[in-house]
Write a structure and sequence with these properties.
heterotrimer, A alpha/beta (278), B mainly alpha (305), C mainly alpha (473), A: 278 residues, alpha/beta, Rossmann fold, six-stranded mixed sheet, four-stranded antiparallel sheet, 12 helices, globular, C: 473 residues, mainly alpha, 3 domains, two-stranded antiparallel ribbon, 19 helices, 2 strands
Amino acid sequence: MTNEPILSLNALTMRFGGLLAVDSLSFEAKRGDITALIGPNGAGKTTVFNCITGFYEPTSGSIRVTHDDGKAYALEKLPDFKIAQRVHVARTFQNIRLFAGMTALENLLVAQHNRLMRASGYTIFGLFGLPGYRNAEREAVELARYWLEKTQLTDRADDPAGSLPYGAQRRLEIARAMCTRPVLLCLDEPAAGLNPRESDELNVLLRSIKHDTKTSLLLIEHDMNVVMEISDHVVVLDHGKKISEGTPEFIRNDPKVIAAYLGVDEDAVEQAEAEAGL
Amino acid sequence: MEYFLQQLINGLALGSIYGLVAIGYTMVYGIIGMINFAHGDIFMVGAFIALIAFLILIAIGITAVPLALFLVLLIAMLLTSLYGWAVERIAYRPLRGSFRLAPLISAIGMSIVLQNYVQLAQGARVKTLPPLITGVHTLLDLGNRFVVQISNIQILIIVTTFALMTGFSWLVSSTSLGRDMRACEQDLKMAALLGVDTNRTISLTFLIGAALASVAGIMYLLYYGVIDFHIGFVAGVKAFTAAVLGGIGSLPGAMLGGLLIGLIETYWSAYFSVQYKDVAAFSILIIVLIFMPTGILGRPEVEKV
Amino acid sequence: MSAARTENASVLSHALKDALLASIVAFGLFILLLGFLIGDARGGMGLTQRPALLASVIGIVFVGRFLISLLYYNAPALRAALTRAWTAILDLATQYKTALVLLVVAIAIGWIFFAPAQWPLVVMLVATLLVGISLGFSAAFLVFAILFPVAFYDNPYYLGIAIIVLTYVMLGWGLNIVVGLAGLLDLGYVAFYAVGAYSYAIIAQMYGWSFWACLPLAGLFAAFFGILLGFPVLRLRGDYLAIVTLAFGEIVRIVLLNWVSFTNGPNGIGSIPRASFFGIPFNAEENGFAATFGLEFDPTHRTVFLFYLILALALITNWVTLRLRKLPVGRAWEALREDEIAVRSLGINPTNTKLTAFAIGAMFGGFAGAFFATRQGFISPDSFTFPESALILAIVVLGGMGSQIGVAIAATVMTASFELFREFEQFRLVIFGFAMVGIMVWRPRGLISTREPTAYLKERKTISVEHVAEGRG
């Protein structure tokens, strides 16, 4: 069951004018897995994310998400908000994008917009405070409370998101994305700027999302501690191309990956490959 | 055909005036990212100052047109730029770096002040200046009902505008002030850190914008011969439309937008109806913005995710 | 001692220098425009000199700048003194709340004893004060509004001004949905006011429908126009949005001005049917309001009715806005103001969200327009010019974007002072413009700039302004 892919990219290409940001990239992320997308700066990781979540329309190639009921969606033609709305793919951002002037709780309620919108009869029932809507709102607050607890933010629930410390903002963004009840959560550098303790806590949180919910995870990360410790599968990008893919163990020892990170030239890679007996 | 060409000339003259005012909007927007709503009224003040200067010169017996024109140009540019400076100092500088809508409201306040101040000072009735520059040249006469003519004043407007545009482009591209202005436009904070006197640069931008608006005011005065305290609003809205149409922040855009608005208005009046000329200009603005959300020559806004 | 003296001397010389510089600038600014008047004594071309006027204005600038400089250089001490006085007053008031209440009642009884005819005024003031002390500012505002016609029944002039004020309160609240909550800059709000007014006027005249039948229609038409405006501006940001909304307002006005067969052009539409008391007209006839309720006919009945009508409309606007804020659509508006990209990443349709904001904001503008038409009995395009839009926007921004009570205060202060000083004409407008500049410099985020959260887990904390975005739209 865990072997079927939830996300599969096929020959995804994204071109900005003369710049080929993503070059015919194909990979799969398995359902229930944590898949990591790594690579040096400028490798095109965030661009891949933006293609998956619909903020960019890819130049060519396809992106499929398959729900566990077997229903498949082609993301490459869907606009951003429909991907989140229909396909239930949620994301966080590299530079945190919270609703800074709204409280943490409000942030999590906004995330449940579509469900609440239906419950409020597209505002009309809600305007007159009919019980159906009130129940739905109570449920929404409960879900928000659950994720606030999970992210250790219960004490700060009524504070504006903008006033939270950096690490808490990162966690709140994950909580907000989880409140959309996603099948696939895309995390763009969730550990960036966190101290080692926060980074460990993040690992715990991401593992618990993997085990306790039906959400599969795709993450971009520079922090190799996080990547190696929690991911099931790692895809390595360099200059928009996939240069390697496999288990964390495999990636750790792949000379091509080492070369890409250390910026070694091609000859050195070949030499390393020869030495490794490849 | 002759009619068409005639309207082209009329449209270019009108568009030049709009373009000169539009530069003021676009410069200020480029540097501090705000709509200087009072700019149209600065144009109006310029026209009034020019009219009074003309009348003073006539009263003291300087009636040689080229000399009078030169002196009026000098006086009006000087005094009007003082208004530009004062408006920035009073209403905008205290709000620099503040929230986006605060300077907008304070600009609207300043616009109300200027309009009513001029109305208080000079009365609400229209003021006239007898035609000083007369004479027309026939460019094309095919013996039909229409001939194509260009008047001296139209030549003056178009030539002055293009001379100022050239001079101004040179100023922005090749002088140290221009370099400071471009630096402030890129990044105000960084420019300040690198030793650019941003306050001075912004003040000078307002001074120059107001000076150009005053030239537009003089041209308007000479072209139409009639001004009142209300011309600033209409011209201001048109010039602002022009600046946005061309792509706000872009100097060639402002000029292009000005010419386009002038031409659209003139042709619409000539071929359809005078009453709806503004509707035509605004509708074209809206249509252009639907397809080019940042105007014709504006830099497309990159949405950074 | 001597150090203080030199400091004083340097403050003085600084202030003098500032004043002198300001006078030089003033001379440059005013030499032509104030020093000369276009047109000579015979009304022909030429100039009249006004040296006395010029000199006195420059004198005023000199003295004014001197005083401001003195104040400015002594500002910290002054501010500290003021703050101390204010906290002392507040402390006293909270400490002796009961005594204060008793004092108010005592004064009121004394007042009524000596001037019994003024009892309605006294009742209003006392009720407002007592409610204000016990329930807070918003409640006091409401009580004041409800009792206003009681206190000023004999003064149709004040009643008239109060009606205008309430119209602007309603317009401010309507625009607040678009600008304050959704963060979309709208410089053409008056267009919806116009659409509402003309819809009512034309339908009422052509089909003879009553005000109550036309009111929802006026709102619907305005909402339709809101959506019409919404579509082209969906992708636009900031100043592009500003100019398009401004252009839209102008287009509506120009069309009203020139479509003579439909709108009667610049002459406007007159003899618009007056609002009736749910079908009972306000006239001296037998079936009129006064006769039906066994009262003596009094034209003030209609004015009072109009007052309560617009008060009710405004309160409905307020109630709906407050409800909407707590509903998903309202939260989506505020989220849109904070960060549109994040909104999209959460599966919220930004197009629908923006369009509903435009439509609902416009609808309230339309209601206000219908009310305006029935109150005036005459409308023309002159009432729907850009300065009107600017005034409404200024009310929203000066009040504090998103704050209902702030908008109400701003609308009251601005329109009431504006109407009360009508006799000073342009002079009042110059001051008005400077006041707008001054308030913005003093409080760039408006009078009340905090945000109330729409939901809370443990306690409701007011959100300070530094976190709240104002939208890029």
